[in-house]
Amino acid sequence: MKVSFRQLSHAIALANRANFRLAAADLHISQPALTRSIKALEESLSVELFDRLSSGVELTPAGKVFLERGRRVLQEGEDMERALSDFLGLATGSLVVSTGPYPGDALVPDAMAALMRLAPDLSCRIWETDWKDVPEQLLSRESDLAIAELSDLQGDERFQTEVLVSDRLYFVCRRDHPLAAKAQIKSGDFGEYPLVGNRVPDRVMRTIGIANAQPGGVSSSMLFRCKIDVSTFAATKRIVLASDGITLAPLVQVAQELRKNTMTVLKAEVPAIHLHSGLIHLKARSLSPVANQFVKELRRTKQQMDEQSAALKRRYEVVQ
Question: In whole angstroms, what is the distance from residue 107 CA to residue 110 CA?
């Protein structure tokens, strides 16, 4: 019995998609090539792994056993390949980084650019995603590390975490927003204006009075209607600039808009809210030289951001 890593990856893709055409597209091969690969694998094992149905395919009982162990074998193979490539340092390799909307807008791109200047031959991917999806992406080895919200992961024994970003969040809106002229804004003033942005952590919801918030819904204790759920901060800014929406942001991430006078900071009588983002990776998996260098660049970039943020607070007379 001979099974190659290539055949394993084909079987896993087919099991994930339950459809030959979709799996072939994911693998960037033709559907007939995938069909031949799966048939050869089944003949080698002398067992059928998939039931062919009119609606697609389903794993047979034998297929479930094979894939359960096969996934682990493939991950071990990838780990072995990474371990061997580590001897080459930054000369070659790859890096996949998951990130949330705030660090994904400022911190991560600048750190990645610095890494690429050191090692231009690397293959890297930045995966900007909902921070709630980060744990699964790390556990499935889809990502090497993440820079995202830490609220749900600190204390989880599966992950190593390090706080990198604890900047204060400010309520910002377009310059000619109806609330922009108010000298002081109370919680009741926000009632008509939706919050724009990514999913809000429970700790933030409690701080600003959002209880049991759902997209499009309103609760009696909410400051905002959580109406516009956006996965990237770049999209959030565009929506806020063209509507009566309001968002939460660190000053450094709206610095350009503040300087151009297209956005303003609202003086809201609510408790201070801070980001709680940082580095996340699997505790049982050592970071590669590439990942370690990227982490160094993250810390260096964050120091530069802190200096810029301090200058912004002085310029716009924002008091912590």
Answer: 6
pTM: 0.64
Please check whether residue 236 is in contact with residue 156, taking contact to mean a CB–CB distance below 8 angstroms.
no
Other Cβ atoms within 10 Å of 302 Cβ, number = 20
Cα dist from 130 to 92, 104, 135, 294, 312, whole Å: 29, 11, 11, 21, 28
| Residue among 241, 250, 269, 260 at smallest CA distance from 182 | 269
pLDDT tens readout for residues 75-102: 877 776 666 555 455 556 789 999 988 8
Over residues 182-201, the pLDDT tens digits come to 888 877 777 788 888 877 67
- 145-149 and 94-99 beta bridge pairing: parallel
Residue 51 and residue 15 in contact, taking contact as beta carbons nearer than 8 Å: no
β 94-99/263-265 pair status: unpaired
Beta bridge partners of 158: none
pLDDT given for residue 274 in this prediction: 85
